[in-house]
Amino acid sequence: MMQLTQFSNTSALNDAFASRLVSILQQAIAERGEAYLVVSGGKTPQALFNTLSQVDLAWDKVTVLLADDRWLDAHQTDSNERLVKATLLQNNAKAARFISLYANVASAFDGVAQVLPRITPLPTFDAVILGMGEDGHTASLFPCSEQIKHGLADNAPAVLAVQPQTAPYQRMSLSLPRLLNSRNIFLHLVGSNKLAVLNKAMAEQDVLAMPIRAFLHHPVAQVTVMYTEN
Ligand SMILES: O=C(O)[C@H](O)[C@@H](O)[C@H](O)[C@H](O)COP(=O)(O)O
């Protein structure tokens, strides 16, 4: 199920989104003593990360991880880990714990053995922030990849290695069931081209053609779309 929340500009969206996330994380800390926040890389969330990094929160009780990363060491420009460390894990949020999806081996496929034990034991997440590509991928669940059925399967492991055919780098991605195991799921979209992709995803059901549909059409999960045109 999908609920669309529309904002008049990026800063209104980021302010509202940051306060919503803060109340979710605060409630988690109050109830369970810790909070788990899953974020996406790419261009869309960068300004949100900056806003979020400055909020007043018991960040030392928050664990941050990525929905997916490119198989690059954390010093390389296109690494999502680099991005999160440079934008989100700054200011107050520097105190948060970060769990990496990377290991220093040549291939993501070889890295699964090291990354899986970091993610499998984690409890239900408090918030997952997804992004979406113009081909309908989310996290690194790419429609073009050989691994897509594996990543969308009900019994998929928490993480899997993915080789996209239409995007650079091997990826490490959380699977559909691991991402769905969250108290709150958001989809963060900026720009009318992303709204057009969302509308296309809503219009039909084929999840292998557009993996984001597995979230949007899920019979139980509620996906809150945070959207602004610019
Ligand atoms: O590693 C990644 O690239 C992401 O996590 C990916 O799923 C991203 O969210 C979308 O591709 C949207 O990317 P943009 O925000 O750059 O449009």
TrEMBL record:
One of its GO terms (biological process) is carbohydrate metabolic process. It catalyses: 6-phospho-D-glucono-1,5-lactone + H2O = 6-phospho-D-gluconate + H(+). It comes from the Bacteria. Transmembrane segments: none annotated. It holds the Pfam family Glucosamine_iso. Residues 9-216 form the Glucosamine/galactosamine-6-phosphate isomerase domain. GO terms for molecular function: 6-phosphogluconolactonase activity. InterPro entries: 6-phosphogluconolactonase_DevB, 6PGL, Glc/Gal-6P_isomerase, NagB/RpiA_transferase-like. Keywords: Hydrolase. It is an enzyme of class 3 (hydrolase). Its EC number is 3.1.1.31. Pathway: Carbohydrate degradation; pentose phosphate pathway; D-ribulose 5-phosphate from D-glucose 6-phosphate (oxidative stage): step 2/3. Coiled coil: none annotated. The keyword Hydrolase applies. NCBIfam families: pgl. Belongs to the glucosamine/galactosamine-6-phosphate isomerase family. 6-phosphogluconolactonase subfamily. Hydrolysis of 6-phosphogluconolactone to 6-phosphogluconate. PANTHER family: 6-PHOSPHOGLUCONOLACTONASE. This is 6-phosphogluconolactonase. It comes from Rheinheimera pacifica. The gene is pgl.
